[in-house]
């Protein structure tokens, strides 16, 4: 083995199914890694750092959110009552707003912020 290695997809951030984002995150990882290599003119060390900086927070958010969504879906007792009260009457727009971060992602914007 020579040099550094990195992970992407489930190997890097295995998640529960509740956000339906595992494959999406794997594809975003791949696109980001490719763009990071392009942006660093194929300096692998710099590209891997840029890739990692860009992906950790977003993918961790999915992992943690998925865990919480599972808890919400399977809530029982008082927790279920609280969930139902919070979501009752919630408009479709508010649900869409809550998932805007999933579908508003753009690799160039992400690399600029990283
Ligand atoms: C029921 C179900 C529903 C899902 N629904 C969604 C969804 O709606 N939306 C979504 O975005 N994601 C969904 N996912 C998650 C998604 O399938 C995964 O996040 C995604 O497949 C991860 O891709 P990956 O390439 O990282 O890993 P994998 O797809 O697991 O690919 C890893 C590959 O490596 C191979 N491999 C393992 N060990 C070795 C070895 N030693 N040598 C060589 N090859 C090896 C495996 O055979 C496999 O082909 C779902 C998953 C499941 C199980």
Summarize the structure.
This protein has helices at residues 22-39, 44-73, 77-87, 92-98, 100-103, 107-113.
Mean pLDDT: 93
Which term fits the overall shape? elongated
Q: Radius of gyration from the CA trace? A: 17 Å
Q: Proportion of β residues?
A: under 5%
Total number of helices: 6
Tell me the total number of β-strands: 0
Bound molecules: flavin-adenine dinucleotide
Total domains: 1
Give the low-pLDDT segments. none
One letter per element, helices H and strands E, the order comes to HHHHHH
Derived structural class: mainly alpha
Terminal-residue CA separation: 29 Å
Give the % helix.
Answer: 55-70%
Largest sheet: none
Give me the secondary-structure topology.
Layout: H1 22-39, H2 44-73, H3 77-87, H4 92-98, H5 100-103, H6 107-113
Helix pairs in contact: 1-2, 1-6
Bound molecules: flavin-adenine dinucleotide.
The site of flavin-adenine dinucleotide has 10 residues, from helix 1.
């Amino acid at each position: 083995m020579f040099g550094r290695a990195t992970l992407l997809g489930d190997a890097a951030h295995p998640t529960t199914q509740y956000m339906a984002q595992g494959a999406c995150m794997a594809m975003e990882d791949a696109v980001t890694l490719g763009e990071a290599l392009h942006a660093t003119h194929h300096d692998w060390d710099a590209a891997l750092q840029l890739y990692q900086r860009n992906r950790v927070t977003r993918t961790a958010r999915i992992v943690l959110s998925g865990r919480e969504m599972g808890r919400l879906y399977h809530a029982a007792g008082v927790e279920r009552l609280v969930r139902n009260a919070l979501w009752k009457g919630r408009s479709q727009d508010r649900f869409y707003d809550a998932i805007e971060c999933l579908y508003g992602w753009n690799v160039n914007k992400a690399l600029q912020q990283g």
